[in-house]
Design a protein that fits this description.
Layout (H helix, E strand, L loop, with lengths): L1 E4 L11 E3 L2 E4 L2 E3 L8 H9 L5 E2 L3 E2 H6 L19 E6 L3 H14 L3 E6 L4 H5 L10 H14 L6 E6 L6 H16 L4 E5 L13 H11 L3 E5 L5 H11 L3 E4 L9 H9 L4 E4 L1 H18 L6 H16 L6 H9 L4 H11 L19
Length: 363
């Protein structure tokens, strides 16, 4: 069962989100999460209230050269329940984006998203992701090539950060790319309120997001950054005026956040997943992982690696989160993972104490 808390708010009329011709509806979506937002995570999020999800970022070269092999075919596999779903591309060479985008469309993705925001060292060193915020001409060539490569009805979207750094030059380049991308047919742009130089350190600048939305006017802007609770999602929408918000790290191990935002927006008490519900969802995600990798060599080992990683994040909601995190981190087989799940999510641990669902969780 799922409990409720007294955390409530007056009902809010939220904007109906559209990405070009794709109707999303509720304006709180799941971001692309490198290493996390695989098919099982996306399907769980959809079942728990996310109206739209993005697959984990894929290098354009990987997509272009992808072979139908058991070990990697799940990366381009979609379930019927996922639609609408977006595929995100990242790369360095503009010419490589077009065939990759066409390949994602052939695989069934409804939206093509281009990553100009990744701040990790490997992306920047490879002239990918956030690196493109420093070269508007190349970034806009990528946009042109992707837009030309996919059917007109398929939306193309962007993910950006607010610049490489806090310099005026970086800010000017940001808006040059933003305006140029919309002029070239981009349907929506998601903006993370940190710079590339910040990575994930320091607060996300929501005032900057408000400035971007005012600048964009009727063009569709989604905000991202520091969305670890349902209340934060509503606060960003209210503070910035953006058309939607994209939940990234706040959704890892907490897929209930989407249903929680829906409840708060409706003026209902905040639903809180008890241990039985947490166990149900973890078991569901594990089963979907095995299903996705069926027929591949090492399917159980791959599922263990994935679910151990996720369980460590799910543990943040457990009243004894440190002990639970350690228990899952030390699992070496899938049966051991199931044993840990049974031990820590049984009736003996059904305590109401633990992290409040309306406060940021440990990261």
């Amino acid at each position: 069962m799922t409990g409720v808390t007294a955390v409530t708010a007056a009902p809010r009329a939220l904007p109906d989100l559209r990405l070009g011709g794709v109707h999303v509806g509720f304006p709180v979506v799941q971001a692309a999460l490198s290493g996390y937002s695989d098919g099982p995570m996306r399907r769980v999020a959809r079942r728990l209230g996310a109206p739209y999800t993005l697959a984990e970022v894929m290098l354009e070269r990987f997509v272009r050269e992808h072979k139908d092999r058991a070990r990697t075919r799940h990366r381009l596999r979609l379930a019927d329940e996922e639609h609408p779903v977006g595929g995100q591309l990242m790369g360095s060479e503009p010419a490589d984006f077009a065939p990759a985008a066409a390949r994602l469309i052939a695989a069934g993705f409804d939206v093509i998203d281009v990553n100009f925001g990744c701040p990790v060292k490997s992306a920047l060193g490879g002239c990918r992701g956030g690196y493109h915020l420093g070269q508007p001409a190349v970034a806009l060539e990528i946009v042109e090539r992707v837009r030309a490569a996919v059917p007109p009805a398929v939306p193309v979207t962007l993910k950006m950060r607010r610049g490489l750094d806090d310099s005026e030059e970086s800010r000017a380049r940001f808006f040059e790319i933003l305006d140029g991308a919309f002029a070239r047919g981009v349907a929506a742009i998601t903006v993370h309120g940190r710079t590339v130089a910040q990575k994930y350190v320091g607060p996300s600048d929501w005032d900057f997001l408000r400035d971007v939305k005012r600048h964009a006017g009727g063009r569709t802007i989604l905000g991202s950054g520091d969305l670890f609770t349902a209340q934060a999602c509503l606060d960003m929408l209210a503070h910035t005026g953006v058309d939607g918000v994209s939940v990234a790290r706040g959704a890892i191990g907490n897929p209930w956040i989407f249903g929680q935002v829906r409840a708060l927006a409706a003026g209902l008490p905040l639903p809180v997943p008890d241990l039985a519900e947490q166990r149900r969802v973890m078991e569901l995600q594990g089963a979907l992982c095995l299903e996705e990798r069926a027929g591949a060599a090492g399917a159980e080992a791959a599922t263990l690696a994935t679910m151990r990683m996720f369980a460590i994040r799910f543990a943040a909601l457990h009243p004894e989160h440190e002990a639970v995190r350690t228990a899952f981190a030390t699992c070496r087989t899938l049966p051991a993972w199931r044993t840990a799940l049974q031990r820590w999510y049984g009736a003996a641990h059904a305590s109401p104490d633990g992290p409040r669902p309306d406060e940021p969780r440990p990261n």
